[in-house]
Amino acid sequence: MDNQTQIIAKINQSKNILITVGHSPSVDVLTAALGLTLAIDKLKKHSSAIFSGQLPPIMKFLRPERTFEDSTASFRDFIISLDKDKADKLRYKVEGDLVKIFITPYHTTISPADLKFEQGEMNVDLIIAIGVKNQADIDKAAMAHGKILHSAAIVTIKSGAASDFGAINAAFPTTSGYSEAVSKLVIELDENLLSKQISTALLTGIVIETEQFSNARTTPDTMTIASKLLSNGADQQLIVKEIRGALEPIPVAPPPEQIQDIPELEPEPIESLDDFLPPPLPDFDDKLPPPPDISASEFSEVISPEIVEAPPETVEIPPEVVKIQPETELAQPDIIETELPVLTDSAQSLPPPPDTVFDLSPPNQPETAPPEQPKTVEIIDTSKSDPTQFHIPI
Question: Does residue 292 or residue 34 have the better pLDDT?
Fold first, then answer.
């Protein structure tokens, strides 16, 4: 019978099971202890996870405070003693959050003075130590009562080399970590125990230990276990969201006293403004070739060349025979000389003319006939080789 089978048999035989870890457990160890405790609770057994340290903030979304305890007080019985001659019957009843114990007296009365209260011995059948190297490495809360180690069976679970102080020392050298090892144990115990809460807790440890399935610890068995946890309700999106939020560094401001102690920086004196000016541009004139040697006359010829006026355009008119008639004298109009009458004083004494409305619109002008051309006589002188024509007015 291998160690895993022995552990399963021991769990089935026990009623009160204490699950503990080492002094400085990793998140993987704590999620393994959380998942195993919740799984054993579903078997209707009394189990509790013991850890006296501070739970990591990255586990806050798993609500581990509801499962982990910082002492073993829950495994100790509380004893109420009463004289047997005064008690006839004993029964209890649960009313809300209270458990009421009823003692029926036998031919007498019972008062608080008749009762005696005391703490009993630790009632632990099995101790499961996860990630514990040796007995000295067990959490101090579990070691507060040394009798536990002598009265209960001890089982150790290690992901590397096995421990040597337990009755059963199981080692899982090929797993990615403790959450994967406990997942195999719970599946072997009863896969139906894997609830959404248990599967999420165990998958959280696997995701952290494998760095989201990216490091060398990730094996095919790891992926198979993770697949089974997902099929049983593990919330992968919640895990990734919470892990990323917890792993991001939060900037912390220095305390006020440190801010006040920061010395004031004095400005350094400026010796010269040249330190702040850009470097001068290179002198490109030194790199240009020298100009050619040109005399003044050549320079003026190059700069102001002689402007040659273009000859005016000439238009050749084809020869034509044009007859030019000599000027003719127009008849002078007759000039008629008349004398205007002289205005006398009697004309000035005349009454003013009546008011007359003048029509300022232009009068209808009669059509004027074209002026009559003067009558002339054409005379041709044929005595010359070139006949000449004359026009003589009549």
Answer: 34
The CATH classification number of 3-72+124-247 equals 3.90.1640.10
Q: Where in the chain is the domain with CATH 3.90.1640.10?
A: 3-72+124-247
Pairing of strands 16-20, 126-130: parallel
Calpha distance 128→49 (Å, rounded): 9
Q: Do 138 and 95 form a contact (C-beta atoms < 8 A)?
A: no
- The helix/strand/coil state of 85 is coil
The residues, ordered by sequence, that sit 6+ positions from 251 with a Cβ below 8 Å of its Cβ are none
The whole-model pTM stands at: 0.58
Cα(18)–Cα(25) distance, integer angstroms = 16
Place of tokens 């004031």: 264
Q: In the Cβ-directed half-sphere of 391, how many Cα atoms lie within 13 Å? A: 12
Is the CB of residue 31 less than 8 Å from the CB of residue 5? no
Asked if residue 296 has pLDDT above 60, the reply is no
SS3 118: strand
